[in-house]
Amino acid sequence: MAATTDSQGERPSPMLWRLTLAVAVALALLAAMALTFRLAHGNAARALTERLEISAQSRVQTLESVLAKQRAVATVLSDDAAVLQALAEPSPANVARVSEKLERLQEQTSSAVIYLLDRDGTAIAASNWHDPDSFVGSDYSFRSYFSEALLRGEATQFALGTVSRRPGLYLSHDVPQRGEPLGVIVVKVEFDAMEQGWAQAAETTLVADAAGQVILSSAPQLRFAPLPPIPAGQVSARRAVPGAGWVLWIHAPGTEAVRAGLLAVGTVGFLFTLLLAGGVSAARARTRAARRMDAERRYRADLERAVEERTRDLTAEMRERRTAEQRLAQLQGEMVQANKLATLGQITAGVAHEVNTPLATIRLLAENGRQMLPAEAPDLDRNLGQILRMTDRIAQITTELRGFARKATGELGPVALKDALDAALLLTASRRRAQDIRLVLPQIPPGLRVMAETVRLEQVLVNLIQNAQEALEGRPEPEIRIALQDDGPVLRLSISDNGPGLSPQIAAQLFTPFATSKPEGLGLGLVISQEIARDFGGRLTAGPQREGQGATFHLDLPKAA
Q1: Which pTM does this prediction carry?
Q2: What phi, psi does 137 have (nearest 5°)?
Q3: Beta carbons of 228 and 212 less than 8 angstroms apart
Q4: Which of 116, 251, 351, 366 has its CA 20 to 30 A from that of 319?
Q5: Residues with Cβ < 8 Å from 412, sequence gap 6 or more?
């Protein structure tokens, strides 16, 4: 009896065994929740960092584009004949002509102000020449952008304006003549609109110069202060601004990552609770009748199925999110390329405008020379006549370029179809001549008009003709055929080529944005042209596609009354 009592005393009690098991389960649950929080928080923090890096890259590209455009303005003006003449002979007429030119450029390039300094640092011309606080007559020789431009040819400085008291970036370039600077051209750029756009975002954006001083910020109170440290609990990304010596920082609260970790912990706790409840139910079910065991097995099977479905849903959601992020990065790159193309169009229109002055001089000299020729010089007379005809052709081309670059008004009215088609053919003529493309044109009455808007109609026609010319690259006996069908209240203009035609894959997504077979294309030309045709009350469609037998596009336009 005594031996039996001692043996039973050494055996652990059921209460102690259950308490030990509960402690072990609780510790395992805490460990699993801690590991889950760490993994989920890390993944969310990495995703947030990647998103901030994409945003930082996009904003750096925007800054780089603005700086490149304004530097180009200063570089072009440093070699301008009117600017050189104003510095060499600062008469009121020469200075006024330069001020008017700077005013026009300031409006076209969205710069804050453009002004010209002489060799002593005094502003002799400025885009704000007619304003009460004009820079004309002010002395800026104390500015480092002036002295450095005289020494090195160009300089930059971010500072407060002495007159406007507004911060901005000053880009300067010397105006040389025979190796010696006559003066300095200065372009000031203000970033108020960009900073206001940053301020509307949830994250904080800062741009610091090489000395670590904040020059641009979504929080104006931080401007011109030392770069602050990254606040605790925040995620950041940085990108250098090429060619400026600046660094762009983006900070965002890390609460999003914390919330993701807590959500994952809650999910694990919920699943663990379900599993624990299932285990307890299973333990109790063993003591019940056999008829309850089948129902308990079905319950466990349903629970496992729910866990698997949830896991599949989470995997699919993560895959969709990665795809969306990749698409966002691609779209941001395409937007930057579109912005560059728009800037190139503005520069082309400016160059076409500047060509007119020397062209008029060439024509005047040719006419004078022709009048002074003796009657016995027929060869010289023919040569001068050819020069006059060529200047007329150049003037016609530059006129069409400026008209094509003008912003559309959006107002519809009667437009002569023949004039619009002639303008589009003139703008695309150089490539046709280079490829030796045969052009077949219809007879279009001069009085035939359609309801449209001149600039946008020319844009659609140029796009369709350029697409046909690109399709004929390297093709034998290339030909573009334009046909007119005038039936009732709607005109149909058909543009066909004898190129390779459209593949079924391209034809299926012909009017889908960003779908293109061209390595350098954006996939927006046909989409924009189709929308313009709809705005006119017409439509743009593709004819039946037969691969290898060319492509045809139909432009339907309403006739003007």
Answers
A1: 0.42
A2: 95, -15
A3: no
A4: 251
A5: 451, 452, 453, 535, 536, 537
